[in-house]
Amino acid sequence: EDQVTQSPEALRLQEGESSSLNCSYTVSGLRGLFWYRQDPGKGPEFLFTLYSAGEEKEKERLKATLTKKESFLHITAPKPEDSATYLCAVHENSGYSTLTFGKGTMLLVSP
Amino acid sequence: DTGVSQDPRHKITKRGQNVTFRCDPISEHNRLYWYRQTLGQGPEFLTYFQNEAQLEKSRLLSDRFSAERPKGSFSTLEIQRTEQGDSAMYLCASSPQGSDTDTQYFGPGTRLTVL
Q1: Cis peptide before B96 (omega within 30 of 0)
Q2: CB distance A45–B106 less than 8 Å?
Q3: 3-state class of A16 per DSSP?
Q4: Does A95 touch chain B (CB under 8 A)?
Q5: Which residue from A24, A34, A58, B98 could staple onto A89, CB 3.0 to 4.6 Å apart?
Q6: pLDDT of B19-53, one tens digit each?
Q7: Closest residue of chain B to A51, computed from CA coordinates
Q8: CB within 8 Å: B42 and A87
């Protein structure tokens, strides 16, 4: 059973068309939830860390929110340069610092 | 540039050969991680170091894989007798130790192709 599930797998938007990406998780105890952006052929780039339900963080056109079962990455008025794969990862209260990633959402923003 | 660096960026090898990758973490980060990522998947954890101690290894890490971090700074990941299934992007990440510092910062990765 997957611990981290991201949806949709792929999303195509027109420039300026706002939308949300979903990350649902099933862990016994959440220590932190992370969002990363990954461009083709590159390593993941850190965006946000969320620690508790109700927490929100913003950066430019992106806003991440967290509930007890899922997280959303809201993209407001996206631009073509926002095109990338967005990865969600969770860190459990297991004693170690390893992250469990979802498969990602591939976002394409057309001009 | 003070980010995580990895070398080489690309490696093409023949099946059965040994390969070694290097990772230099962000200065003063004492935690270092190796992940593997295949096309269409998220990164999968391989192993974790705190300083020079290897504290956790994934079941994915077969006996052909070995990682070291001899002085608690850079790390190497060696794959012996490579197989075609080892073809993937190998990612290194680092993080500082502390109560609110779980965030891992990734390097650019090493793309391995086994022919």
Answers
A1: no
A2: yes
A3: coil
A4: no
A5: A34
A6: 999 999 999 899 999 999 999 999 999 999 999 99
A7: B100
A8: yes
